[in-house]
Specification:
Elements: E1 3-5, E2 9-12, E3 15-29, H1 32-38, H2 40-61, E4 64-69, E5 73-78, H3 81-99, E6 110-122, E7 125-127, H4 129-140, E8 146-149, H5 150-156, E9 163-170, E10 179-185, E11 215-217, E12 220-222, E13 239-242, E14 246-247, H6 253-269, E15 276-277, H7 280-283, H8 293-300, E16 304-313, E17 316-325, E18 331-340, H9 344-360, H10 365-375, H11 384-396, H12 404-420, H13 425-440, H14 447-464, H15 469-481, H16 485-498, H17 503-513, H18 518-531, H19 541-549, H20 553-563, H21 568-580, H22 584-597, H23 603-610, H24 615-628, H25 636-641, H26 649-660
Parallel strand pairs: 6-8, 13-15, 13-16, 14-16
Antiparallel strand pairs: 1-2, 2-3, 3-5, 3-6, 4-5, 6-7, 8-10, 9-10, 11-12, 16-17, 17-18
Helix pairs in contact: 1-2, 2-3, 6-9, 10-11, 11-12, 11-13, 12-13, 13-14, 13-15, 14-15, 15-16, 15-17, 16-17, 17-18, 17-19, 18-19, 19-20, 20-21, 21-22, 21-24
Length: about 650
């Protein structure tokens, strides 16, 4: 394959493809799969009507054209970026007006992303960087929102009356530089002055302006003098520099793969809340040079350095990675990955995600190293970050397993961290997880209060850091457990869009959707385990729940045994599974442990706790309870005490029969 490239035309294998500058609008419907599952025909008809009556006329009115339809989404091209933004705002306002006349569970919410960039024209299609960035902005936009790139905001800020709020920067796969992102404020608030492009998230460093300075003079790297801080960033946080991976092969194509591997690891690590990643342009100066890791640490102000290499060996490729403590030069972790080289890009994607999750997950190498450092500090010298780490270790990832005392102590420590740094979003995420475990394990003195505090903490986390995927995951869980499944699904989708390779986030989503979408939950759980080979036991929750509701009881039993602990939930499932598998002695023993922990246990009470409402799922639990010798149905008195309890059809019939007899 050969090509000749000029400013406007690419000639490739005899075909002429035009390049041009265009504004690209990407839009899609939030929660479309759930809407289709609820009412396939009605949803499809409403989508088609909305497209014909609103989207197509508005896009045409603003001199744009749709070049791709994708089921629940579309891509449109505009020659004027002003027209593109005005059209997007008109679409959101028009959709809001249409929704006012539609029942809440049938409303469409749309995300829109807009980018100004060069696109390649091939017939009626458009592709390239300009399209890719617009699609990424759409994925991370809020439901009902419009997100634009920095180029778009700069072009239209003084031409339109809308406000533009800086969100931060996002990395886009195969795009070298991070993209500044702005949210269009649709209510016509006064415009905010555009901020200089900078990483506003607490996980990113800004290598420019007042934030940081990296200069290369005569081959020497001058250290970073400071950085932009949005939530208590401190030198002792988990700052990591990913050095350019070394190509050990003579073929130059492998250098491109090595560069791509470096970029992908930076992108994936940036999704991990436990890690702060230094910008790639700060480490590019070290490419191809023999470096002293301790000097790199001093130059860049980082605690950890990740280095690696790539080598082709016959029809296989070997990728090595090594994490080093910068101050001492000590090896903290190393791994070698040998893979077939036929599909090198799939190998690159798989290995980089594994490295990122091994290092950056909630029980990852970096987090564990940080905890050890914090544990050896005098109490009066602990920073907000140290306190956060201590809280996480005692409450959420204790060596001996979760306990009530550990959760109570963790709550105190998370609140202490917040007191030291009120803007620390991840401390609120940790606090939300504490309340979810107090509720889920049955440790809460007041379950209702635990749910309320869970929701409050998760909402605050999202408010402080709207681009934190784990904050959105926690909010999804809070909404789900507070009986708002539709809103929860929106948050889970946003969490996945923001952290598509964050294994912890994928496993959390799987656990929470297992009863409503067990097939997807299994896929997410399996991907989480693939991404994080040293995964914690709780990743199995989504699997045992899902397989139970799919009636694969033997598989469910396998996974529930991996997580059995103090929680009554696993004991309840264990009893039901033994009942279904016709193992009466084991079922009786497990049921006894359930009743010892909660003498008033019934299937209806259990289902109410988890907001499981599907008829198939609820009756499956009820029948499992009966087979285990547990009560499926609450008494009339118990229903009176808890009027919100889920009432099963089979139980209503049973109660009616008992009342008449």
């Amino acid at each position: 394959m050969w090509y000749y490239q000029s400013r406007s035309v690419i000639i490739q294998m005899g075909a002429v493809m035009e390049r041009k500058l265009a504004a690209i609008v990407a839009a899609d419907v939030v929660g479309y799969s759930a809407l289709m599952e609820q009412d396939e025909q009605g949803t499809f008809e409403r989508l088609r009507a909305g497209r014909k009556e609103l989207f197509e006329p508005e896009i045409t009115h603003h001199h744009g054209q749709i070049f791709k339809l994708m089921g629940d989404g579309l891509l449109a091209e505009f020659s004027s970026v002003v027209d593109a933004v005005e059209c997007a705002v008109a679409l959101q306002k028009g959709l809001a007006e249409r929704n006012a006349a539609v029942p809440e569970d049938q409303r469409f919410q749309v995300r829109i992303g807009i980018n100004l960039g060069e696109v390649i024209v091939e017939g009626d299609d458009r592709y390239g960087e300009g399209v890719n960035i617009a699609a990424r902005l759409e994925q991370i936009a809020e439901p009902g929102g419009v997100y634009v790139s920095g180029k778009v905001a700069k072009e239209v800020e003084k031409k339109l009356a809308f406000g533009f709020e800086a969100i931060g920067e996002q990395r886009v796969k195969n795009i070298a530089e991070p993209v500044p992102v702005y949210r269009v404020t649709l209510q016509g608030q006064p415009r905010r002055r555009l901020l200089k492009a900078g990483r506003l998230r607490n996980r990113w460093l800004v290598p420019a302006g007042l934030a940081a300075v990296v200069a290369v003079t005569a081959g020497a790297v001058l250290g970073i003098q400071g950085w932009w801080k949005s939530s208590g960033t401190a030198v002792d946080e988990a700052l990591i520099a990913v050095l350019p991976f070394e190509n050990l092969d003579d073929d130059p194509k492998w250098q491109r793969i090595a560069d791509g591997t470096t970029e992908d690891i930076i992108t994936d690590l940036s999704q991990a809340d436990q890690v702060l990643v230094i910008a790639r342009n700060s480490t590019e100066a070290y490419k191809g040079k023999a470096v002293d890791v301790r000097q790199v640490g001093a130059d860049l102000g980082v605690r950890y350095v990740l280095k690696g290499s790539l080598q082709a060996i016959g029809d296989r490729v070997r990728i090595r990675a090594q994490l080093i403590e910068a101050a001492t030069g000590a090896d903290l972790w190393s791994e070698r990955y040998d893979r077939p080289a036929q599909d090198i890009f799939a190998v690159q994607s798989d290995v980089t995600a594994k490295i990122a999750n091994t290092l950056g997950s909630q029980v990852g190498v970096i987090r564990n190293s940080q905890v050890k450092v914090a544990q050896h500090k005098p109490p009066n010298s602990l920073t907000a970050y140290d306190t956060y780490l201590m809280a996480d270790a005692v409450a959420l990832t204790p060596v001996g397993g979760v306990t009530k005392d550990g959760l109570i102590e963790g709550e105190k420590l998370f609140r202490k961290a917040i007191e030291l740094d009120p803007q620390m979003a991840r401390a609120y995420v940790g606090l939300a997880y504490v309340y979810s475990l107090l509720y889920g394990y049955g440790f809460a003195d007041s379950p209702e209060q635990a749910l309320s505090k869970l929701l409050e903490a998760a909402q605050k986390a999202v408010e402080l850091d709207p681009n934190n995927n784990r904050a959105h995951g926690a909010l999804g869980q809070a909404l789900s457990w507070n009986g708002q499944p539709a809103q929860a699904l929106v948050e889970f989708e946003r969490a996945e869009a923001l952290g598509p390779n964050d294994a912890d986030t994928l496993a959390l989503i799987a656990t929470n959707i297992a009863a409503s979408d067990s097939a997807r939950a299994v896929r997410l759980s399996e991907r989480a385990i693939l991404l994080n080979p040293h995964y914690p036991n709780w990743y199995n929750y989504g699997l045992y729940w899902s397989y139970f509701f799919q009636e694969h009881f033997d598989k469910s039993l396998k996974y529930v045994k991996l997580v059995i602990g103090p929680s009554i939930n696993e004991k309840s499932f264990l009893a039901m599974l033994y009942g279904y598998l016709n193992q009466p002695d084991e079922a009786k023993k497990a049921a006894g442990e359930v009743l010892e922990q909660d003498p008033g246990w019934t299937a209806e009470k259990f289902l109410t706790k988890w907001w499981i409402k599907g008829e198939h799922e609820t009756e499956l639990v009820a029948e499992g309870a009966r087979k285990a010798g547990l009560r499926a149905c609450a008494t009339a008195a118990e229903l009176k005490d808890n009027p919100n309890m889920i009432r099963l059809k089979s139980c209503d019939e049973e109660r009616a029969k008992a009342a008449s007899g």
